[in-house]
Design brief:
single chain, 553 residues, alpha/beta, 18 helices, 30% helix, globular
């Protein structure tokens, strides 16, 4: 990127060596392009949590009819600023201006009243309530008599679901929906508020490709109507696609901003992390041991659609030292398979063996004791205890390892926690910090660290990099491949084909509950893997892709 495009001064070689002031002044606006009216401005905003400075004197603008995309690593301060703009958090310093006037946003209700709505990175839904009740929670519609107007709420809910192209009944309990559908309910709730400023914090992290396309259409309609959108995503390609303005955060500071016209991935990554964040583990050593995990002809019933098989005759072997990626689109049966392997859902038929031992009679705790660990897809619901500290969450699954004479040894527990925090590179003020003080990506690292503390021989990970930035992804996979070289067998799920290609030894593709193809990651192509995920068994080079046991003929 050159100076005429507004990237930076010519002396820039390493963004990490420059000050925030140097980078933040970036005149990349196209004079012929309407920048949009500034409707919300953060002025000199700072935020501290104890000794942690989450935001440092940030100036930030939101423009009407434009999509402002925030880039930055986990813990860079993006979500903290969004919580301040939406009334979830209060700033430690600085102030906000709405249409040029100072404003105090002391709660989310204040924000909604001012036309500001947020879609949180972590789902903020009540699983025991219906879709309708979640959408209108706290802002119920009432009739002239003062009673809640359920009929009108149902009508609006159906319209919102139709707009998002989802066939979900208003009365459906949110807890019965898959994670991607719950994400759409969160989006629908924000749309129902009729906001003029809409903040989207990782809105696509659990969505399929088709659902993402629908969301982008909705965003186009909103901006055409003058709605200002602030968008955060670690999927850099999609963020660049929708951006009108790009803003980069690093270590609590706004370090660069520019028009999205001509925006390039290299500029984003280097400005975010100060280095290349590319990773490719395909040529890692392949010294595999015996089969550690064997899945043979396994069938699992879909718990949300009685009688239908979510997993239909799947067979996979994973060897010690091998990293196997299970790739597929939403609804392929990947998560249901993972939850059955760890003991959360029953296996209808087939066999799963761990080092030759059938695990059918083992509960979740016994499977962990015998060397099986699971990093779940939904870290908030299944991976963390929100009221506990970072350290307590980290050691939760391995407390017995610190027991001496019937008591937990605090010294041993602390040593294990500190070692793991450093090992998985969790950005935290310390083991005693609240888990809620961490960014989503750092919370995910805590979940992974928790499982590694159990000293597993087989590790199962369901979407391990959901909500994690490009730099942290490389760190996570580097950690997994390091453990694999020590003999750990890894089976992980992803819906990102780029991860599947560059961060595995072998790719196993599922579609409609079945394994349809297997690829060597060194020779597979993006087109082949994506084609297989749609149920096709045709590939460009059959030597590089062969049907598996249990695959569709």
């Amino acid at each position: 990127m050159n100076d005429e495009e507004g990237a930076a001064p010519q002396h820039r070689a390493d963004p990490s060596s420059e000050s925030a002031a140097d980078l933040a002044h970036d005149p990349a606006e196209d004079p012929a392009e309407d920048p949009g009216e500034v409707v919300l401005r953060a002025v000199d905003i700072s935020k501290t949590y104890g000794v942690t400075k989450a935001l440092k004197h940030v100036d930030f603008e939101v423009r009407a009819g434009k999509v402002t995309v925030l880039f930055g690593e986990n813990g860079a301060g993006k979500s903290t600023l969004m919580k301040i703009l939406s009334g979830v958090e209060q700033p430690s310093g600085g102030h906000l201006e709405l249409r040029g006037e100072p404003v105090d946003i002391e709660s989310t209700n204040d924000a909604v009243d001012l036309g500001i709505s947020i879609i949180h990175q972590e789902l903020n839904l009540a699983p025991n309530l219906s879709v309708r009740d979640n959408i209108f929670m706290g802002r119920e519609l009432t009739s002239r008599s003062g009673a809640v107007d359920r009929r009108r709420e149902d009508e609006i809910t159906r319209e919102l679901m139709q707009r998002l192209e989802e066939d979900i009944a208003p009365s459906t309990p949110v807890g019965d929906l898959r994670l991607g559908q719950q994400q759409l309910v969160e989006i629908a709730r924000a749309l129902a508020a009729d906001a003029r400023i809409l903040i989207m914090d990782e809105p696509t992290s659990a969505l399929s490709h088709s659902e993402v396309e629908v969301l982008f259409k909705v965003m186009d309609d909103l901006t055409a109507d003058g709605v200002a959108i602030v968008y955060i995503s670690h999927h850099l390609e999609e963020a660049i696609e929708v951006a009108d303005h790009a803003v980069v955060f690093r270590d609590g500071e706004l370090v660069a901003q520019r028009s999205a016209r001509g925006l390039e991935m290299d500029w984003v990554v280097h400005t975010m992390v100060g280095r290349s964040a590319e990773y490719d583990f395909r040529d890692q050593p392949r010294e595999f041991g015996d089969v550690a995990l064997s899945i043979q002809d396994v069938r699992v019933v879909d718990p949300t659609a009685g009688g239908r098989l979510a997993v239909d005759g799947v067979s996979i072997d994973v060897r010690a030292g091998e990293v196997v990626c299970l790739y597929g689109l939403m609804g392929a049966g990947r998560t249901e398979l993972m939850e059955a392997l760890c003991g959360r859902e029953p296996i209808a038929s087939g066999h799963v063996t761990l080092h030759g031992d059938d695990v059918a009679a083992f509960g979740i705790g016994e499977r962990i004791d015998r060397g099986m660990g699971l990093v779940p897809e939904d870290r908030q619901r299944d991976g963390l205890v929100q009221m506990m500290s970072v350290g307590s969450n980290m050691s939760l699954a391995s407390l017995l390892a610190s027991v001496k004479r019937l008591f937990v040894s605090p010294k041993d527990e602390r040593a294990g926690i500190d070692r793991q925090i450093e090992d998985v590179r969790v950005k935290t003020a310390g083991r005693g910090a609240p888990i809620t003080s961490l960014s989503g990506g750092n919370q995910q690292k805590v979940v992974i660290g928790k499982m590694l503390l159990t000293d597993p021989s087989v590790l199962l990970l369901d979407e391990p990099t959901r909500g994690i930035d490009v730099g942290a992804k490389g760190e996570i996979f580097s950690l997994l491949f390091r453990e694999a070289r020590k003999g750990l067998a890894v089976l992980y799920v992803t819906s990102e084909v780029g991860e599947a290609l560059t961060a595995s030894h072998r790719i196993v593709v599922m579609a409609k509950g079945r394994v349809v193809r297997e690829f060597d990651a060194r020779t597979a192509t993006r087109e082949e893997v994506m084609s297989a995920s749609e149920g096709s068994t045709e590939t460009a080079d059959t030597a590089d892709a062969t049907p598996l046991i249990g695959a569709t003929p």
